[in-house]
What we know:
Largest sheet: 6 strands, antiparallel
Radius of gyration: 22 Å
Number of helices: 13
Order of helices and strands: EEEHHEEEEEHHHHEHHEEHHEHEHEEH
Strand content: 15-25%
Distance between the termini: 34 Å
Helix content: 40-55%
Oligomer: single chain
Number of strands: 15
Amino acid sequence: MILKHLKICNFKNIADAGLDFSPKVNCFLGNNGMGKSNLLDAIYYLSFCKSFTGMTDAMLIKRGEDFTMLDARYDRRGVEEELSLGMAKGRRKSLKRMGKEYQRLSSHIGLFPLVLSSPHDIDLIRGTGEERRRLIDMLISQGDPVYLDRLIRYNRGLEQRNKMLRDRVADPALYLAVEMQMESAASYLHATRRKWISSLSEIFDRYYRAIGGDEEHVTLSYRCSLADDGMESLCDALDRSRHRDETVCHTTVGPHRDDIDMLLDGMPMRRAGSQGQCKTFVIALRLAQYEFLRDTSGMFPMLLLDDIFDKLDATRVEHIMEIVTGEGFGQIFITDTNRTHLDEIMSRTTGDYRMWLVESGALAPIKHPVSDETT
């Protein structure tokens, strides 16, 4: 899948931009705070209907303006497709595919697959289990609409149960009705997550060794909030924990409490990993996510690399570029702050690439170094 053209109006600090992209590598150069990540966020928003920064929709509209618009043209499975997303203050956002508006935005997720690697990925290691669950849910949902449906159903039941706890509801029959709905969704979530993490771990270790060398090995393991022997159902666990849940006024067991253990040579990555190892770890994890998504969707997802080369030595950077510009990857979008650094990276890259300078939300094409020498 290729993003061919993007038109941006009033998105964050980008007032107006129209970009025609390379089908392979697209680079955005500029100082911090100029709008490089905002450009990637616009691309991300068209795939997921939300910002990767966690900003609310209202915060995405350029300051002083009343609306934002994103219009994009893709080559998807050999067919040209168009997406148009609009938001105005005080109104719900509207996403149209080929001129037809989505009634449920969740039905769009996974149709235009994308993988993002950014400095925020360190939270996958250092942060809470919520960050890692978000990774699990986002990846699986792109390739499995049943999973997304079960996740929505589970979260709806979880919200109902938590409200009952806060309201001090005492009727066991009411709890059981909600908990049975949660259990029917939870069984699918648990089984799918366990299968996904098992498959991903092997791919992940391969990418880590390709970037950092064969001396270290990394693994992922699924930590389920239920007993590993499978003897206890979610309904049993919720019943057992109800007294504690009533005390704290929220549900303390279930898929929303699951986690991924991230290990380096058998040790927790958050404790054992150096800064460079942690950076390599999360990049390898994103590349494994890319391969998994590519194989499940039958398409080459877009790959967004937001300022990922910081704190990596030249050898690891070169290994990453060798991987992502190879046959197993499709269209790539890269941001960096250093022109010399980016030129050096791209000088080792064969094939088509384009480069833009980003200053205060304005984007201007940059000639390739070779072109500069011959003019």
